[in-house]
Amino acid sequence: MNADFRERQQALTIRKLAVRYSNSSQWVLQDFDLAVRSGEFVVIIGPSGCGKSTLLRLIAGFTQLQQGEIVIGKRIAATAGGVCIPPEERDVGFVFQSYALWPHMTVKANITFPLEQKRFTALQREQRVDEAIMKFGLQEHQHRYPAELSGGQRQRVALARALVGQPALLLMDEPLSSLDVALRKRIQDELLIMHKEWQPTVLYVTHDQDEAVKLADRLIVLNEGKIQQAGTPYDIFHSPNNSFVANFFGEVNELVGSVVENQGNGLCCIRIGDHIFILARTQSSLTSGERVRVFIRPSWVDIQEREDMSNARITDSRFMGAYTDYSLEWQGIPLRVSTQNTISKRVGDSIFLKVKDAWSIKTSE
Ligand SMILES: Nc1ncnc2c1ncn2[C@@H]1O[C@H](COP(=O)(O)OP(=O)(O)OP(=O)(O)O)[C@@H](O)[C@H]1O
Known about the structure:
Blueprint: H1 3-8, E1 12-19, E2 29-36, E3 41-45, H2 52-60, E4 67-72, E5 75-79, E6 92-95, H3 107-116, H4 122-135, H5 151-164, E7 169-173, H6 181-198, E8 201-205, H7 209-215, E9 218-223, E10 226-231, H8 233-238, H9 243-248, E11 253-264, E12 267-272, E13 275-282, E14 291-296, E15 301-304, E16 312-319, E17 324-330, E18 333-339, E19 350-355, E20 359-362
Parallel strand pairs: 3-8, 3-9, 6-7, 7-8, 13-20
Antiparallel strand pairs: 1-2, 1-4, 4-5, 9-10, 11-12, 11-14, 12-13, 14-20, 15-19, 16-17, 16-19, 17-18
Helix pairs in contact: 3-4, 3-5, 4-5
Bound molecules: adenosine-5'-triphosphate (ATP).
């Protein structure tokens, strides 16, 4: 990381933001706060229409806010009805779903464009652009125009253009969505290397959970303009705040039970129907007798073939390659299980199942 870049490094703070489009009475984001550390890679996931792109467009300066403020680095970038630094002066690189390439410029000219406004010598410019062209595999296409490229090729040009100037803040809205799986993985690796090398602050939107887990220092789950949970991918997968997050982020069995005894340190004894677990992780504030919602991921259940004991029956099974998905009936409770264990039991047979892990939160049900 060079000194110039270190000086420009940007944190991002959003306070009490509210926005709605002029043709709509609905607020897309309201009372929205977000703080991103300088150099952090934040991935935003959420269902279609929850406000992810709007948030990125606001930060880039393409959409106006009605309330609140956006601070990029030490500068106030936008306030309601007041300050609005134009997009090109925000030192922000962006890749949006629509590639927004200049149609009258070649690939090479598109990629060179962000460097025109920065203080680079002609030689530095040439080196950086050539490097970006190589990195994104665009050597053969560099003299073509955007209209002569496929969707995936245009997306790579948009990525190269966003990264070439090493902006201190990068906004990326599903930047890899039109690439095939192999290329997507390769560019994900490139993004991680780039992030390690010059540590820009990144806000990245994706629908792909694997991509989110791979890239994120911190993950933000958004729904209807509200942050449902922010945390490491591990925390969000293992300890979801609510039912929405648990279901949005991977498959989950969701059951209702009660606390038999909270032993502290996150260990708790939980009853669900006739079953009692003694290894369930819970919110620390739960007390005996309290109703809880219990989340059990399919991979948190172990199934065994035992002659002496059984407590469940197989109702369906599907071989998935690296693992097998089972539907089980666990003494009246339907349960989905994924396991890498090979068992000889078939649909209708009895097996013994053991819940290895579960996460419970308070519920009023
Ligand atoms: N230009 C616009 N005019 C009016 N409404 C808009 C406009 N752009 C977005 N919206 C609305 O704002 C809400 C949030 O849209 P946004 O594009 O931010 O969602 P998103 O989470 O990025 O969705 P997706 O994952 O489908 O891209 C939606 O209800 C959408 O219909």
